[in-house]
Design the sequence.
């Protein structure tokens, strides 16, 4: 897809960290987040990345959504990209959610916003919407982790067993969660760290086939050359399996009332095969789920135009 010109910076190369101004704010004591903020004065829209991503995964969405009338806020989560690694050692959903609330509400001054997220970022915005009542007006999710609702899923005829597909793809999850130090020790050079992360954009079949050119993979993996930031990213998995203490209990065991639009990229080999059916249980006020052909785990990059139009339509009355 041709790279649209950033109307605010005059940059035509979207495979450049300089395509957008990056700001850094201390949002909570000892927590510094880097973020892009474009379209200031529009309706606040928070875009949250997952793993192994940074704010760069949204580079194809920022300028079009700002042009549509949104104030687009795109952070690096704690421990990712240009954000700091807090001394408190927390990498759990609640810590991320409180960071983002502090950024949008306290630093940028927005009492409400809408959110878009997938993977880890989808989990973070779900926690954010439940933890701060009324703060998230609407949310858009795709290829995201979903809450643990064993009773509700079983009542809907869904299995609580891990599917063979997910189990086969979960070796990375086990190592990053239970052997993070050992894995980090093996990835002992910038080249090895980037090659490890590059698998998730290619051979591990998370994305749609051919969705990322070599130069695009290089752009996405560059922030993970840092040993400290790659290791910090593993903390999100350690938190999930109980190997690392959490700041507080996640809002991860309840059905959400936040109005939610769900998309699904079917070329994803790591998200639950019954993702769409689970979403019908997890969200009371649901639009979709809608299948997006030629998309996988990285739908915001793979089908950027479609996502931009869909988000704009879903939030049109807010504009």
Sequence:
């Amino acid at each position: 897809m041709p790279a649209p010109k950033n109307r605010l910076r005059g940059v035509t190369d979207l495979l450049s960290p300089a395509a957008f101004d990056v700001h850094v704010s201390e949002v909570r004591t000892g927590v510094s987040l880097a973020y892009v903020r474009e379209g200031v004065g529009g309706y606040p829209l928070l875009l949250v990345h997952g793993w192994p991503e940074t704010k760069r995964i949204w580079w194809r969405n920022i300028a079009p959504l700002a042009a549509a009338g949104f104030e687009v806020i795109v952070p690096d989560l704690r421990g990712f990209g240009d954000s700091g690694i807090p001394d408190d050692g927390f990498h759990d959903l609640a810590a991320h959610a409180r960071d983002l609330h502090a950024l949008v509400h306290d630093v940028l001054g927005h009492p409400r916003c809408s959110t878009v997220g997938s993977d880890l970022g989808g989990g973070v915005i779900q926690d954010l919407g439940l933890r701060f009542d009324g703060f998230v007006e609407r949310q858009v999710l795709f290829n995201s982790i979903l809450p643990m609702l064993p009773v509700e899923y079983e009542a809907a005829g869904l299995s609580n067993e891990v599917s063979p597909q997910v189990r086969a793809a979960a070796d990375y999850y086990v190592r990053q969660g239970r052997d993070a130090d050992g894995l980090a020790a093996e990835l002992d050079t910038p080249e090895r760290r980037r090659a490890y992360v590059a698998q998730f954009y290619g051979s591990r079949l998370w994305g749609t086939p051919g969705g990322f050119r070599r130069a695009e993979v290089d752009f996405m993996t560059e922030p993970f050359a840092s040993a400290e930031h790659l290791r910090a990213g593993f903390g999100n998995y350690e938190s999930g399996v109980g190997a690392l203490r959490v700041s507080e209990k996640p809002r991860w065991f309840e059905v959400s009332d936040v109005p939610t639009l769900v998309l699904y990229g079917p070329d994803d080999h790591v998200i639950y095969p019954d993702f769409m059916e689970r979403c019908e249980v997890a969200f009371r006020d649901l639009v979709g789920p809608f299948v997006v052909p030629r998309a996988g785990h990285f739908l915001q990059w793979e089908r950027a135009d479609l996502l931009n139009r869909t988000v704009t339509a879903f939030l049109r009355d807010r504009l």
Summary: Strands lie at 22-28, 31-38, 43-48, 70-75, 113-118, 136-144, 260-264, 286-291. The radius of gyration is 18 Å. The longest strand covers residues 136-144.
